[in-house]
Amino acid sequence: MIRVQAERFEPGAELAAFAKGRQDVGGIATFVGLVREDKEHGRVRAMTLEHYPGMTERKLEEIALEANRRWPLLDLLVIHRHGRMEPGEPIVLVAVASSHREDAFAACSFLMDWLKTKAPFWKLEETDEGERWVDARASDDAAAARWQEPGQG
Amino acid sequence: MKVRYFAWLRQRTGCAEEEVSLPAAVRTVGDLMHWLGERHPRFAEACASAGVVRCAVNQDYVSTDAPVAAGDEVAFFPPVTGG
């Protein structure tokens, strides 16, 4: 399931609901991304995530389809927030259920790497020194590129 | 055609979205960027920095040589920073 929402979510409750009643699942790998009180450009007081409604959901669905194509997954959950949030609040949750841990770990890592480079979100930080749009990082592109399959451009 | 701007491109153009009627000479994303740059000088400045402006046509990423047509939804934005 893919959810893009402004509302805060509680990772523990989401994970409990995701796992509830599943007797076929051998393991669930999860990633929770939080707003970080970064101090590199002045202390971050809050962050606002802008997104492209419609395209965001579409890209996340595509990324989820690709994960399902590559690994034998039993279920997956992606929740990504938009709007304003403060340090410590969750931004994103990815949970992947599979029979075996290797597939769950790999798919979870893949989903985050592709989400960071393909889902149309933009972070605006409110810091002590003013507002600042977060720059894309070359390390994120490198992380996404490692999942490239032979023959892909 | 609907043109949308996101993040700091929205702030620089002072516009989240606009309806435009394309002259016949505008056939590709690159042509459109040049044409929009004449309306929004600060958009032209951003486009001059190679690799900074990304584009989607009808919600799919495209490169500057992709075709555009009346009725398309075209979006311009900086590299994404979600997650």
Structure explained in plain terms:
The complex is a heterodimer of chains A (153) and B (83). The mean pLDDT of chain A is 95. In chain A, a hairpin with a 2-residue loop joins strand 7 (121-127) and strand 8 (130-133). The longest helix of chain A is centred in the C-terminal third of the chain and has 18 residues, at 101-118. With 153 residues, chain A is α+β, with helices and mostly antiparallel strands. Chain A contains 4 helices and 8 strands. In chain A, 33% of the residues lie in helices and 34% in strands. In chain A, strands 1-4-6-2 form a 4-stranded mixed beta sheet, sandwiched between helices. The two termini of chain A are 29 Å apart. Chain B is an alpha+beta fold. Helices cover 31% and strands 23% of the residues of chain B. Chain B has helices spanning 7-13, 29-39, 41-48; strands spanning 2-5, 17-19, 54-57, 60-62, 73-77. Chain B has a 5-stranded mixed beta sheet with strand order 2-1-5-3-4. In chain B, a hairpin with a 2-residue loop joins strand 3 (54-57) and strand 4. In chain B, helix 2 crosses helix 3 (41-48). The interface between A and B is medium-sized, with 27 and 16 residues.
> In angstroms, what separates the terminal alpha carbons of chain B?
31 Å
* Structure annotation, total helices of chain B: 3
Termini of chain A, distance in Å?
Answer: 29 Å
Total strands of chain A: 8
Q: Please report the number of helical segments of chain A.
A: 4
User: In one word, what is the shape of chain A?
Assistant: globular
H-E order of chain A = EHEEHEEEHEEH
Biggest interface found: A-B, 27 and 16 residues
Approximate shape of chain B: globular
Structural class of chain B: alpha+beta
* CA gyration radius of chain A, whole angstroms: 16 Å
Compressed to H and E, one letter per element, the order of chain B equals: EHEHHEEE
Overall SS class of chain A: alpha+beta
Provide the helix percentage of chain B: 25-40%
Report on the biggest sheet of chain A: 4 strands, mixed
In which order are the strands of the major sheet of chain A placed?
1-4-6-2
Mean pLDDT of chain B: 94
β-strand number of chain B:
5
Strand order of the largest sheet of chain B: 2-1-5-3-4
Gyration radius of chain B, rounded: 12 Å
